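Lecture 7 notes: from sequence to structure.
We start with the chain below.
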Amino acid sequence: MTSASGTATATGRPAWLLPTLVGYRRRWLGKDVTAGLSAGAVVVPQAMAYATVANLPVEIGLYTCIVPMVVYALLGGSRAMSVSTTSTIATLTATTLVSAGVAAGSDDAGDVLGSLAALTLLVGVVLMAARLLRLGSLVENISNATVLGLKIGVGATVAVGQLPKLLGETVNVSGEGFFRGLGAVVQAWDSISGVTVALSIGSILAIVLLKAFAPRVPGALLVVVAGILIVALTSAREAGLELIDPVPSGLPVPRLPDLTHLGALAPGALAIAVMVFMETAAVAKGIRKPTEPMIDSDAELLAASAANLAGGLFGAMPAAGGFSQSAVNEGAGARSQLSALVTVALAVAVALFLGPVLSLLPQATLAAVVFVAVAGLIQIPTLVQWARISPRDFWIASAVAAVGLTAGLLAAVGLGVVLTLVLVLRELNIPRLDGVVRRGGALAVHLGRGLYTANALENERAIVALATTQEEPIDTLVLDVERLDVVTMTVLGALEELDRDLAGHGVELHLARLPDSAVEVAGKVTWYQGMAAAGRVHDSVEDALAAATGREPT
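Predicted structure tokens for the same chain:
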């Protein structure tokens, strides 16, 4: 991806603006228009459906197809990614609003939509903070096992939460957890609507069959159109078929956030921000062609942050890269984010002119769209396969899924982040000592990774063990610290302790190739000053070995 520096392109445009248009060719325009329309046929009905997951008006889903998508198109580095809301983000949004005491779907729409604006803005702020701290690579290190567990938890929770609507009830419990959803299904069993069940089964079968036998046909769009026609041309509504709330025509307008629940929304905003970046980065890298620029994690953080900040100002849901619409976009030949702008134009047209038509949409139709979409997240065969291949990954995924189903999805995301940090620290804690060279009584060792607070003690122990278990005793150990770009007082303390421990075994420590940035800090410490004065700090390993053996460097 083009670096988001202040340099300008050949056209005079700043390099951070519309980076996917770098090297654009006019003949690609037709493909971008076709791809944008194809992706729009998927993303528009899906976004409306995902809004209902969070028990929000369907127009909020439309708005999420407009403002965040425009901003990402201006700043994002993925040529084919389509940014709106996703099933995971919608579910976490619902969970966060419920946990914060915001009664989504209540009569006080202003309170709900104001809190939603605050939540989306908070997500943008968290992502911006992560960008400023350059945490993109850390979030990307969240393990596949954690992601699988989250997907299973989200898929099961949302699928169960849609069952009451598929049976004819209007209640939405997706934000209240898996078992609350099961309870709602039991309660709905006594008031099943035959016409609703028939429409639900038909819609689900249509989407599944089209996906299997005609994958290029937008199944979600077709069942939405079919549902509207059934209501318009038959007496299904009088037979008990429930419709969505009336959809107002118009574009999103700026909305002031309601800060009343800000503290209660913060934990959910953190969890949503993690998932936004995880999904966005995964989709961007998954659909990138080998000939396209590499995806810059920090630049994607900036684009995702700006998209959510802008979306929050216009009352949109938190937004992330969506796999299904991005796959359609990429498969239709998208060559740049111009395709996303075409999708936005389609969403704008729907918002301006089709409000009365969308108001005829059955709730069961949108529930069917959501149900099919999230059912694919419940990847039990993959979990079973992992049980045979990697039991550790199996248990991590199972634990995250179990927490998501019992304690809630916010807790599952928190557990996933904690597990990731534990695994990263565990990996860093494993010493890597390589490039061992023996010359007379001197032993040179290359420090394979930098020293950190988490691994300083383990590396110290490993170095002492290596120095003291040689078949022929050594009197000098040369430590190649080329990787030590950043030093802290903890690291300097560990090196000083290593020096004392080796001296206790009759071994003198020498340091080689310490980077200038580290020397600048270490040079202010008395211990290091003594090392340098004694001639035990060297520019190269060869110089250090020569000094230890009394030979001229080769």
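Points to note: The mean pLDDT is 87. DSSP finds 24 helices and seven strands in the chain.
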